[in-house]
Amino acid sequence: MYRAQTFDFKKNVQAALADRRLRRNLRAAMDILIDNRHKAFPDAAALERLRSRGHAIKQHALNRLPRLLEELEGRCRENGMQVHWAETAAEANDTVLSIVRAHAARFLVKGKSMVSEEIHLNAFLARHGIEAVETDLGEFIIQLCRETPSHIIVPAIHKNRQEVARILHQQIPDAPYTEDVEELTAIARHTLRRRFAEARVGISGVNMAVAETGTLVLVENEGNGRMCTSVPEVHIALMGIEKVIARLDDVPPLLRLLTGSATGQIITTYVNMITAPRRKGEKDGPREVHLILLDNRRSHILADPELRQILMCIRCGTCLNHCPVYTRIGGHAYGHVYPGPMGQVFTPLIEGVQETGELADASSLCGACEAVCPVKIPLPALLRRIRRERAQPHSAQGGGRLKNMAEAAVWKGWALANVFPVLNQAAVKAGAKTGRLPTVAGPLKQWTNVRTAPRFADRTLHAMLNATGDGDE
Amino acid sequence: MNDPSRRRILSRIRSSLKSVTPENPPSAPAPAPKRTPAARIKHLTQRMTAVHAEVHVVEKTHWTETFKALAAEKNWREIACGSGHPLIDELKMAWQTDANDLPVLTPCTAASAPFKARLFQVDAGITSTMGAVADTGALIVWPTPAEPRLLSLVPPVHVALLPAERIYNSLAEAMTEQKWKAGMPGNALLISGPSKTADIEFKLVYGVHGPRELMVLMLV
Questions:
Q1: Residues A4, A74: one domain?
Q2: Which of A16, A44, A286, B7 could form an S-S bond across to A235 if both were Cys, CB 3.0 to 4.6 Å?
Q3: Could you give the CA distance from residue B114 to residue B107 in angstroms, rounded to a whole number?
Q4: Are strands B187-191 and B138-141 parallel, antiparallel or unpaired?
Q5: Is the pTM of this model over 0.95?
Q6: Of the candidates B17, B29, B108, which has its C-beta nearest A53's C-beta?
Q7: Of B6, B136, B210, Cβ closest to residue A267
Q8: Which of A354, A369, A401 is the last residue of a domain?
C-alpha cells in the first residue's frame, strides 16, 4: 500500500505499472464502467443539455454559496437537525468525537463518505479508542486489510475475488474460504447486520444538500447508507460546503447526471432524502441528526475564478474511469484520498501546491475527463494551471519556468528552426537520412529509456505530397 | 449563533466571491415526455424489472387474495406491516376474515426497541407508497408514524403497494404535483429495486444490506 507520509509519486507509478494483477483488475473494471455510462446516456444531444444544466446549477450554487449555506443551516435547524461548522479536518474530527462521546458509543457504523476519508476520520477515532465500522461492501473489504479506497465510487476495485476471499477468511472469525461472490457478500451481510442493530451512532456523507428545504440527499445501492442513517439513535452527516444546491428542482437533473456518470445507472437502488430526525409519533429514525459543514480550504479555493470550478465536482468518479493514466496506475499510486483528474486538481488545492502539485504532471491532457464531466469542469485547463502554479507560484497568465537547461535548449532549437525554414528542412532531412532522431541525449533520453525511439520516414511528408500533386510547393 | 468557525468560513467565502455577480438561476428544463397512463405502467414495469424488482399488476378489488397466494408461494411465516393506512387496514381485514392458515401479520405498533428487533426476524415487510416515477423507474416511499422507516429496509423482502394512478412521468413532476416543497417528510425515499452491490469484480449480488427482493403490487 502507498502512504501519503512517504509520498514518492514516481516510485508509486512505477510499482503500479509493474503490477500485472492490478492492471488486469483495473482494466476490466474501467471498461465496464465506461461501457455502462455510455449506455446510460444513449442520446448525445440530451446528455449535452443535461450537462449544461448540471453546470449551471452548480455554478449558480457556488456563486451564491454564503446565502445558500445560511439558508440550509436555518432550514435544517427548523427541521430539528443540529448544524456544526468545521474550518479544518481537525475541527470536524473533534466535532464527531464529542458527539460520539456524548452518547457513550464505543463504535459507530459508517456509510461511504469521501469527506470522512479526506479528514482521516477512522484513524482519528481509533486513536481515541472508538471503532469506525465501514459498511459499504467495498469499504468493508479494504478496511479489513487496512487499505484505503482506490476509487471514489468502487473503493475495492483493485481487488479480485480471490483476494477478497482471502481477506474475509483471514479477518472474520469463522468465515469459510469461498470465492463465490454471493457467499462473500452474505458473509459481509451477516457480520454487519449485528453491528447495525447494536450501533448507537451512524455516520454518512452527503451527495447534495437542498437549501430551500433543508434536505440531505444520499445515493446508494446497498442499503447500508439507509441502515446507518435510520437504525442508530444518532446520525452524523458530513459534507463539504460545496455540496449545497439551491432548490429541490435541482435534484432530479443532478441525480440523473450523478448516477449515470458514476455507475451507468438510470437511478440507484435507493435515493435517501433526509429532512428531519425522528418526528413525534415516529417509531424509528435517529433521535438526533447532526450536519457537519466542512470547509478545509474550500473557501480559499473559491477566491480564484478559474480554480473555483473544481468545487462544482459532484464526485461521480467518471473522470477517473476515462483517464488513460488512472486506468493504468489505479488510485493508490496517487498517494492521496482523491485520485484521478479531479484529485490531481483538488488535492494540491487542499494539501498545498508545492507539496502535492506534482500530481498534476501525471496527465497527457488528452481531454477525456473534461469531455465526460457531468458538470463540465475544464479539468485539463485546471491541471495546466496547477502545473503553472507549482513552477511559478501565483502566475495567472502562465509561462511557467522551464525545469532544466536541456529542455530549454531543445525548445530554443525548435524556435530557431521554425524561424529559419532552411534549418528546419536540413534537420528533418538529416533525420530522414539516418532514420533516427537527431539526438537521444538530454530530455529525449528519459523518453527513450522506456520506449523505442520512433524512426523517421525515408521521405518527408512534404516530399510525398509534392510527388502526388497534393503538396503546396 | 456565536460560532467563530461559522463566522470565519462565511466571511472568507464572502470575500472570495466579492467580485462575482450572481446571474439568474438556471432556467427550468423542458418537461419530461408525457406518457399515457398505460404507457407509464409499461415503462415503469420495464425499468423496475430490469433492475430485478418483481412487478405484479393486480386488480384493486382483490389484491389481498393475490397477496395471500404470493405469500403462500414464498413460504413466509411472518410479515410485518404498518397501521393506519387504508390499504394496510384492508389487508388486516382480509387476514382477520380468513380461516385459512396464513402467515402471521405483525403490525409495528409496539414500542420502538422490541419492534426494531422484531423486524430483523420477519420474512417480509409490506408498505404503502406515495406513487412512482415512470421515466427512471422508482417507487416513492415516505415513511410515517404509521409505517416506520425500517419496514422497507430490514426484512429480507419488501412488498410495496402502488396504486397505478399514482405513477408520475418524472421525479420533477411528482415533486411538483405532490407539493414536496411545502412539507418534506422526515425521510423520503426513491426505491428502484432490491438492495444490491457490484463491489466484487462487478458481479451483481442482491440483498447485501437491505431486502433481497422487492415485490411491487401495482393496483389497477
A1: no
A2: A286
A3: 12
A4: antiparallel
A5: no
A6: B29
A7: B136
A8: A401
